Amino acid sequence: MKPRAVLVGPPGAGKTTVGTLLAAALDVQFRDVDVDIEAVAGKPIPEIFIDDGEDHFRALERAAVASALSTFDGVLALGGGAILAAETRELLAGHTVVYLTVELSDAVSRVGLGSGRPLLALNPRATLKYLLDQRRPLYEQVATITVGTDGRTPEDIAAELAGKL
Ligand SMILES: Nc1ncnc2c1ncn2[C@@H]1O[C@H](COP(=O)(O)OP(=O)(O)O)[C@@H](O)[C@H]1O
Ligand SMILES: O=C(O)C1=C[C@@H](OP(=O)(O)O)[C@@H](O)[C@H](O)C1
Ligand SMILES: [Mg+2]
User: Do residues 66 and 92 touch, judged by C-beta distance below 8 A?
Assistant: First the structure.
């Protein structure tokens, strides 16, 4: 069993939002790895970062992604940093991986003050700029389909993807 599509991209790309609409359009289930991680940890992501640290969050994330990739057949959204793990990038080979791109200005306005995203809590704009530059090659490495999201509605993006899949 494998997901119909796996959505990757930086925070604010719209993985959760577009993924939900895409799953509805394809009439399959939607799953968000961030939600799986919170269920395993028994607390929200900001609390995992505060209580246990980012390394622990990443370990939970690697396990949650590996499990979902082998047991779930709907539309799967990863967290923006999941592709930092070489193990996860390797597991993504052979999957339909959709990279939702977003430029800094749209990402900044979408994540707002970064609430619920502990990495962005201090300085969302500067951190997003760093994350976008650091991760772009990794998203490009795993992607099989790349779709731009700037200035577009989630509905429009989901409809384009539903047509492609
Ligand atoms: N194409 C879009 N245009 C405008 N706002 C968007 C778009 N996609 C997502 N959003 C908004 O941006 C925020 C972040 O979206 P989300 O789906 O959580 O992104 P991700 O899961 O990639 O971090 C949400 O408030 C969402 O409503
Ligand atoms: O970029 C990241 O490292 C993270 C992105 C978040 O998911 P979204 O990309 O859905 O915001 C979430 O997994 C966590 O806060 C870490
Ligand atoms: Mg998300």
Answer: no
